[in-house]
Design a protein that fits this description.
The protein is of the alpha+beta class. It contains six helices and eight strands. The strands form two sheets. It has a six-stranded mixed beta sheet with strand order 1-7-8-6-5-3. A two-stranded antiparallel sheet has the order 2-4. It binds adenosine-5'-diphosphate and magnesium ion.
Length: 227
């Protein structure tokens, strides 16, 4: 039985990665283009052509995943810091991932406090990205369905967000590597989602802890300072 709390403190690398990421996206695009060009040849057998096009689509999906997990955050334009209502934001990001949850047969449970209070200071889009990456992983860890629990609470001068799944969980080794760039156990993973989530929470002077048990599930505990 493995369960350990991990603190996300390994993230100085982000700016550095911004350069290599364009390379990451260009790769699948180039491959995709190649297969589309091949399938333009009139002499190509229809079954073979179908295979080419499937590969092209697959590669385009991969490019889209990289952009979704990472590029939104890497966007150099400086976004203004603002007071973010976590109460509203949580409901928004949950709505964003509902279609993915449905596709996986996952039921999403959101537990909110009675009143809206406590605002975090930061860049809204980035915080959304951070939550979405965590929610997506939770859902993806339950390909055969299950429950995803999200709760929001206030304590002293902080906001607490808990995101728990009943999915595959992680080994101690995987948990240790969580947040490391390009660490992924998925066939189509980018291995960028957690790095991005952790850096964003960290940039807001928040904290993120993760517990995980193989075969049982994973919980993310996020704490953000509030206004
Ligand atoms: P990706 O999702 O593209 O693989 P991430 O950075 O989002 O990249 O996650 C890295 C890895 O961490 C995943 O491949 C998975 O092995 C593990 N992981 C993250 N979240 C969870 C979770 N909720 N349950 C199980 N494993 C997880
Ligand atoms: Mg992910």
């Amino acid at each position: 039985v493995l369960q350990k709390i991990m603190k996300a403190e390994k993230l100085e690398i982000v700016s550095h990665l911004a350069a290599s990421i364009s390379h990451e996206v260009r790769n699948p695009l180039t491959v995709s283009k190649g297969f589309i060009q091949l399938s333009c040849d009139e002499k190509v057998d229809p079954a073979v052509r179908k295979g080419y096009l499937n590969t092209a689509i697959h590669e385009l999906d991969r490019a889209a995943d990289i952009i979704n997990d990472y590029l939104m955050f890497a966007k150099p334009a400086f976004e203004k810091e603002e007071k973010i209502s976590i109460y509203e934001e949580i409901q928004h990001v949950v709505n964003v991932v509902i279609p993915l949850a449905k596709m996986n047969g996952v039921q999403v449970h959101l537990s909110l406090p009675n009143e809206e209070k406590g605002f975090a200071l930061g860049e809204r889009k980035k915080l959304e990205q951070s939550f979405i990456n965590i929610l997506k992983n939770g859902i993806e860890s339950m390909p055969n369905g299950g429950h995803l629990h999200i709760s929001l609470g206030y304590q002293h001068h902080s906001i607490h967000i808990h995101i728990c799944d009943e999915g595959s969980g992680m080994t101690q080794e995987q948990l240790n590597r969580l947040g490391e760039p390009y660490f992924t156990t998925k066939k189509q993973g980018t291995g960028l989602g957690m790095m991005v989530s952790f850096s964003i929470i960290q940039s807001m002077k928040g904290e993120i802890n993760v517990t995980s048990e193989e075969g049982k599930g994973t919980c993310f505990y996020i704490k953000l300072p509030c206004q």
